[in-house]
Design goal:
Strand content: 5-15%
Subunit structure: Homodimer; disulfide-linked. Homodimer formation occurs in the endoplasmic reticulum.
Strand order of the largest sheet: 5-4-3-2-1-6-7
CATH superfamily of the largest domain: Glycosyl transferase family 29
CATH topology of the largest domain: sialyltransferase cstii, chain A
Radius of gyration: 24 Å
Shape: globular
Subcellular location: Golgi apparatus, Golgi stack membrane; Secreted
CATH class of the largest domain: Alpha Beta
Pathway: Glycolipid biosynthesis; Protein modification; protein glycosylation
Order of helices and strands: HHHHEHEHEEHEHHEHE
Number of domains: 2
Oligomer: single chain
Distance between the termini: 73 Å
Number of strands: 7
Main location: Golgi
EC number: 2.4.3.2, 2.4.3.4
Largest sheet: 7 strands, parallel
């Protein structure tokens, strides 16, 4: 008899828990399931500043089936004085996708997870910052150009999932790191195919690596139309075209749920000196890019808690 009473009490308890769940908890579970991510705040839930600048750019990366418009091509070809035609561009792109995946791998948002990204610039303000562990803690760690980690792990971390580069800034990568090509001219597109196979023999305004160590199955190519979108919408056409760093930051806002930004900002001379070296040209500033406009936008996005900006010194 005591056993039956115990079983009855147990079943009654389960019934009570079920009723409590249905009445008090299930609405919250449903609400969470409707959110685009599991972060405290998802980027798509941004405020008016974010919504003014952000538009869901469906294809930030090139794919085998993407057809760049003539208008966007004509804008892009002026960035570094390209003289070849749209036909030459399309033929070069076609050769790329005979070597690398036809579509870039981008993980979609999910209510069940929070995709966190670290965008790591190369500013000298990373020195003695001790940001390394925080950077490595993020799901995606994006570095760029000749940014290095060896010997600087305490301040910049050691993990790299995506590395942004163009021919003049390319470095050898680990086999599990994605090479993300930012093309500014047809030569850049031609370079990535040959540097991963037979070797590149052309020339540019700076020396270019003939071969590069990178996993061809992880290569991604930024869409030139995305470059124009960043320039026209995010920077309101300030500067000749956006810097690699700022385009990387906006790209992160499109492929991540939560963005942490490190290593952006000028030194006391107004130059963006690197954490591993001082720039020799003290008059360089930010070159053809609107560094002040870009930095102000990053600071404003941080103020609105759209991203988390770590300023170092």
């Amino acid at each position: 008899m005591k056993f039956k009473v115990s079983v009855f009490i147990f079943l009654l308890g389960l019934t009570g828990i079920g009723l409590f769940w249905r009445a008090d908890i299930s609405p919250y579970v449903t609400l969470l399931a409707q959110r685009p991510c599991a972060c405290d705040r998802c980027l798509s839930e941004g405020d008016s500043l974010f919504q003014q600048r952000f538009s869901k750019f469906d294809e930030p990366f090139l794919s085998a089936n993407y057809n760049l418009s003539e208008d966007n091509f004509n804008w892009w070809k002026r960035l570094q004085g390209e003289v070849r035609s749209l036909t030459a561009y399309r033929e070069t792109v076609e050769r790329i996708f005979q070597l690398v995946p036809a579509t870039a791998h981008v993980e979609a948002s999910s209510p069940g997870r929070c995709r966190t990204c670290a965008v790591v610039g190369n500013s000298g303000n990373l020195m003695n910052s001790h940001y390394g562990p925080l950077i490595d803690f993020q799901d995606v760690v994006i570095r760029m150009n000749t940014g290095r980690t060896k010997g600087y792990e305490a301040d910049v971390g050691a993990k790299t999932t995506h590395h942004i580069a163009y021919p003049e800034s390319a470095v050898d990568l680990e086999n599990n790191t994605r090479l993300v090509l930012f093309p500014f001219k047809i030569l850049d597109l031609d370079w990535v195919t040959k540097a991963l196979t037979t070797g590149f023999t052309g020339s540019s305004y700076l020396p270019v690596k003939s071969n590069i160590k990178a996993n061809k199955d992880l290569v991604m190519v930024l869409n030139p139309a995305f470059m124009r979108y960043v320039h026209d919408v995010w920077l309101q056409k300030k500067g000749k075209y956006p810097s690699t760093g700022f385009m990387t930051l906006v790209l992160a806002l499109h492929i991540c749920d939560e963005v942490h930004v490190f290593g952006f900002g000028a030194d006391s001379d107004g130059n963006w000196s690197h954490y591993w070296e001082q720039l020799r040209d003290k008059k360089l500033k930010t070159g053809v890019h609107s560094g002040g406009e870009e930095y102000n936008m990053i600071a404003e996005l941080s103020k609105h808690q759209i991203l988390k900006f770590y300023t170092g010194w």
